[in-house]
Each structure stands twice: as C-alpha cells, then as structure tokens.
Amino acid sequence: MRILGIDPGLQVCGYACIEAGSGQERLVEAGVIRTARSETLAEKLDRIADDITTLLGRFEPDMVAVEELYSHYAHPRTAILMGHARGVILQKCAEAGAEIKSFSATRIKKSITGNGRASKQQVQRTIQTLLSLGEPPEPDDVADAIAAAMCCVNSMSSIGLR
Fold first, then answer.
1. Residue 15's closest CA among 151, 141, 124?
2. What CATH number does domain 2-105+138-158 carry, 2.170.270.10, 3.40.50.620, 3.30.420.10, 3.30.160.40?
3. Collapsing DSSP states into helix, strand and coil, what is residue 123?
4. DSSP codes, 18-48
5. Residues with Cβ < 8 Å from 155, sequence gap 6 or more?
6. What one-character-per-residue DSSP string does 56-68 give?
7. Which of 36, 40, 87, 152 reaches 20 to 30 Å from 47, CA-CA?
8. What does pTM read for this prediction?
9. Residue 162 in contact with residue 24, Cβ under 8 Å?
10. Closest C-alpha among 62, 65, 55, 64 to residue 31
11. Nearest-CA neighbor of 138 among 34, 33, 31?
12. What pLDDT, on the 0 to 100 scale, is given for residue 159?
C-alpha cells in the first residue's frame, strides 16, 4: 500500500510517500513544495495545486494523509492563509479520486512517538529510527509529512486494515 503524507503550507509544503506492507514501512521519496515570497496568493496556490497533481500522478497513492490545521487565536491570519493551501491540496486529492485521511498534529505525534506533545526533534529522531534513515529528516515540513503518512499506516493497523 502506498500512502502520500502531506504537511500543508503556503510557503513550504512537505510531502512524503511511504510504502507499507508486511508490518514494514519504506520511504519512497520525501521533499517540499516551495513558493516564492514574491508570488501572489493566487500564484502560490496555483503552484501548490500543480505540484500536488504531479505528486499524485507520480506516486499513485492508495491513500493521502493530510495534517489538520492548528490555529492559535493570536494568529488568525496565518490559519486563514494555511486553510487556503490545505483546501487546494484536498481539492486536488479529491479530483484525483484519492482516499483522504486527516489527522491532528497531536494524534500524529502520539502515533509516532507515544507522546502527543513530542518536540519536532523527538519526531525526527523517531522517524529516523523507524525507517532506518542515515539522519533525521529535514526540514520539519518533510518530517511532518512522513509522520502523517506513518500515522495513517498505524491507524489502519489498529483497525486491522493492513
């Protein structure tokens, strides 16, 4: 089974493709979609849409795991902008017919590390160990995308779908 994990972002959007089977996960590819600060909001969203479409075509995932937005009342503008990016991502996944699963950051961290309040470094080190990587995944957006995909795998295992 192939799972595409996505950490939505307007400037930097992390992605990771994981293959899962026989109780083991393998990282196929991970990276980021970057937009330029000089681009308008519409141009950034268009770039994200195009790149997500490309990733969906290249990996043909069985499922897409997308991190839910976290918003702090002190930064409503950030949440709104991030919502635009997440909306474009969800629309492109739906258009491609991909099954979409959404997970909160707390659930993702708890699934990977056992602690819903784990630090970014703890998540990175755990992923490094679980996937036998030479070094922790960087940047944080990539680690978050890998963690979302692995959380999806873990959630399927817990209900006996894997």
1. 141
2. 3.30.420.10
3. helix
4. EEEETTEEEEEEEEEEE--TTS-HHHHHHHH
5. 101, 103, 111
6. HHHH--SEEEEEP
7. 152
8. 0.94
9. no
10. 55
11. 31
12. 52
Instruction: Quote the tokens at residue 148.
Output: 């979302």
**Over the stretch 48-67, which tens digit does the pLDDT of each residue have?**
999 999 999 999 999 999 99
Q: Helix or strand or coil: residue 14?
A: strand
d(CA 13, CA 52): 10
The answer to whether 86 and 69 are in contact (CB under 8 A) is yes
- Residue 160 DSSP label: T
Contact in structure between 100 and 64 (CB atoms under 8 Å): yes
Strands (E), 44-161: 63-67, 99-103
Residue with tokens 């002190």: 74
Strands 12-21, 2-7: pairing kind: antiparallel
For residue 117, is pLDDT > 60? yes
Q: Which residues are catalytic?
A: 7, 67, 141
CB-CB contact of 18 with 54 (8 Å):
no
